[in-house]
Amino acid sequence: MSTISPLALVVTFVLQTLVLSGAGIAAQVWLRRAIRREISPTEALLIGVLAPTLLGYLAFWIYFANALAGRFFSFALVAGVLVTLGWTLFRPHAARLVVHGRLLALTLAAGGFYLAALAVFPGPKFTDTAAARFMAKMPGDNEIPRIFAERLYLGVSPKIIGGDWLSSDRPPLQTGIALIAMPLLRAAHIDIDLICGTAGVWFQLLWIPALWLFLRWLGLREHEAHAATAALTFTGFLLFHSIFVWPKLGAAALVLLGFVLLFAGNTEPAANPVLRLLPIGRLGARPLRFALAAALFALGNLAHGGVMFSLLALFPLAAARLWWRRRKGRAANSSAIGWQAGLLAAAVFFALTLPWLAYQKFYEPPG
């Protein structure tokens, strides 16, 4: 029986990173053109995470509606990303294309290290090897996004994906992310299991930019945050869960980014310049920040439902913040803005979440 080729493993991961991270960079390019100003490093990082994850969620629904339409969407998206990147490279100031070049390089290096450790004793399939390489008798949870994605790609009903598992039992975000580059990589005769596995690794590795931004928010300087994040890549916990691609780390990264963004306004910009988000259009800074945080929370929940336990912490934190603002006599001045921001955040969260809840209730209940 043949085993995974280390070269194919690395090449597929690099291609996934080119498409998925490239989608984030392309979104930054178009955002700059739309708002006619340079974007801050924090905005660049958030857009770099939000764009590919939102596109993955969109891909899931398009493939669910029609596999042929999904393939067309994937090819169009990849072509758009590559054209945008190529066009920007030949423009003046092309070096600005990658705002967080060191962070992207660190993510690639960590992914390469993890895949190299996996490939020391490769098995016939990525998912099987990842489940047995570092810990014994792991369940087959990492196979669920692969089975789900494969069925949608082939236009086959995703119902009852194996054993007593329903497709509605597990959220769809990683499945959609795996579908983005699948037609292109299948055209290169790359195995679906390898495509889904490497897309999953890219998604789990979002813990690196999320942790880096969290450390910067805590007050570490840029090089200190890079060093601390790089050191943590060698921990067994992060190694294993970056390879065993049931999307816990990806979900955690999205929620951590949401918490950092949501509570960034608790300090003065001069004291915390890392998280200054300027208003876009007619939205104020707080409504925009709350809406982006809500999108990150929703996407985290659409990756792994376990993050809801973390989201419950929002209520005591919000209550404590309101009490503190009242004590300082600042609550009355910002109550209207606060309600506007809260309602906008709730609308964003439910707009992203309700389609999946409908899938669970009406398409393949009970979920």
Compact overview of the structure:
This protein has helices at residues 6-35, 41-65, 67-89, 101-119, 126-133, 144-154, 173-180, 182-187, 192-204, 207-218, 222-232, 236-243, 248-262, 285-301, 308-311, 314-327, 331-363.
Short key terms for the protein model shown above:
0% strand; 367 residues; mainly alpha; 17 helices; single chain
Give the secondary structure arrangement, pairings included.
Elements: H1 6-35, H2 41-65, H3 67-89, H4 101-119, H5 126-133, H6 144-154, H7 173-180, H8 182-187, H9 192-204, H10 207-218, H11 222-232, H12 236-243, H13 248-262, H14 285-301, H15 308-311, H16 314-327, H17 331-363
Helix pairs in contact: 1-2, 1-3, 1-4, 1-9, 2-3, 2-7, 4-12, 6-7, 6-9, 7-9, 10-11, 10-13, 13-14, 14-17
Written account of the structure:
- With 367 residues, the protein is mainly alpha-helical.
- The protein is built from 17 helices and no strands.
- It has helices at residues 6-35, 41-65, 67-89, 101-119, 126-133, 144-154, 173-180, 182-187, 192-204, 207-218, 222-232, 236-243, 248-262, 285-301, 308-311, 314-327, 331-363.
- It starts with 5 loop residues before the first helix and ends with a helix.
